[in-house]
Amino acid sequence: MTDTPLPYPDPALGDGQVGLRRWRESDVECIRLAGTDPRITAATTVPVEGTPEEAIAFIRRQWSRADEREGVSLAVVDVDDDRAVGLVWVALRPQQHVGGLGYWVVPPARGRGVATAAVRLVVPWALEALHLQRLEAWVEPDNLASQRTLLSAGFALEGRLRSILTLGGRPSDALVFSVVGPGA
Question: Which top-rank group of organisms is this from (predicted)?
Answer without folding.
Answer: Bacteria
